[in-house]
Specification:
alpha/beta; Quinone Oxidoreductase, Chain A, domain 1; Rossmann fold; 10 helices; 29% helix; globular; binds NADP nicotinamide-adenine-dinucleotide phosphate
Length: 329
């Protein structure tokens, strides 16, 4: 008898309303895949880009978004080792398709979840935490005493990155959309929180650093902030442009980096920092240890039923949310 499962699909690129629950066939896993019954699915901003068709190659339609989840292994491909039926696993990356009750995924993108970690906490923190891990530990060389600017500091990645940076003795200047978010950003490790919807963050950074500027800017907001972020850097500082929540960054004249102080620019992706299995496992271990040791506090995420995925997207895009969101099948 052929099996089916519930998934969220979109047949056109567009607003949250294109996300619709449907019953879809569930094939057996391929030779190098595992099949899982998901218990929690992480929402990530990249899911919005996929739905809009604005980031990288557009997904072939109809498509199911989702690049993170936790669940129980229900079937294992013939060439898979290291996973067995009944194992609790989490995954990041691989082909999108996470917004579903069951799914197949490459075993190479899955990790066993340590027994002492809660599934919902892992779904809320694996993708964002691995992003925070590479941004704070591997993408730039930070030293205790450095000062950085972190945009969207009360968001999913922002909450974890600010805690981790503080633990590294880095002074974090966070930007946030509201006073309520500013309060949260301060509680999560930001020494300063700028409400950039009201105050010019360039002026504020200048004031806070005594015109020195910061060593690194972590900019996931993109279009609205990129240009002014460059002005916040000290000479030879590094611009880490890792997202585009407000829209894609306009083309840049390379000479601008010279004129603004011999700046470095990187546009990193978690995909390249976790492609190697050894690096992926080491990064996850560092994340799990940080959660266990209390270096990172992961708050219970706001949970939406899987069938309300459109509402989760609408809330995230309207900047109402703080911290992480998960979908529950
Ligand atoms: N390159 C990578 O490896 C990688 C990996 C993971 C995530 N990311 C990027 O990191 C960013 C954060 O991801 P997340 O999942 O944790 O999301 P999030 O930070 O929880 O949500 C995005 C936040 O961006 C801010 N924002 C500013 N202008 C916005 C606009 N016009 N529309 C919507 N939001 C706006 C909002 O915070 P305020 O209201 O406080 O401004 C909003 O809460 C995203 O840009 C994502 O693409 C990159």
């Amino acid at each position: 008898m052929s099996q089916t499962t519930t998934a969220i699909r979109f047949s056109n690129f567009g607003g949250p309303e294109v996300l619709l629950p449907v019953e879809v066939p569930l094939a057996a896993p391929g030779n190098t895949e595992i099949q899982i019954r998901q218990t929690a699915i992480g929402f990530n901003y990249i899911d919005v880009y996929h739905r809009k068709g604005v980031f990288g190659p557009k997904l072939p339609l109809p498509a199911t978004p989702g690049v993170e989840g936790v669940g129980e292994v229900t079937a294992v491909g013939t060439e898979v080792s290291g996973f067995a039926i009944g194992d609790r696993v989490a995954y990041v990356g691989g082909p999108p398709g996470g917004y579903a009750r069951h799914r197949n995924l490459p075993a190479a993108r899955a990790l066993l979840v340590p027994d002492d970690l809660d599934s919902t906490i892992v779904a809320a923190s694996l993708f964002k935490g691995l992003t925070a891990e590479y941004l704070t530990h591997r993408c730039v060389n930070l030293q205790p005493g450095d000062t950085v600017l972190l945009h969207a500091a009360a968001g999913g990645v922002g909450a974890l990155a600010s805690q981790w940076l503080k633990a590294l003795d880095v002074t974090v200047i966070g930007t946030v959309g509201t006073d309520e978010k500013a309060q949260r950003a301060r509680a999560q490790g930001c020494a300063h929180a700028i409400v950039y919807t009201r105050d010019d963050f360039r002026d504020e950074v200048k004031r806070i650093t005594g015109s020195k500027g910061v060593k690194v800017v972590y900019d996931s907001v993109g279009a609205d902030t990129f240009e002014r972020s460059l002005d916040c850097l000290q000479p030879r500082g590094t611009m880490v442009s890792f997202g585009e929540s407000s829209g894609p960054v306009a083309p840049l004249q390379i000479g601008t980096l010279g004129a603004k102080g011999s700046l470095y620019l990187t546009r990193p992706s978690i995909a390249h920092y976790t492609a190697d299995r050894g690096e992926f496992e080491a990064a996850a271990e560092r994340l799990f240890t940080a959660i266990r040791d209390g270096v990172l506090t992961v708050e219970m995420p706001h949970a939406y039923p899987l069938t309300d995925a459109a509402k989760a997207h609408a809330d995230a895009e309207s900047r109402k949310t703080m911290g992480a969101l998960v979908l529950v099948p």
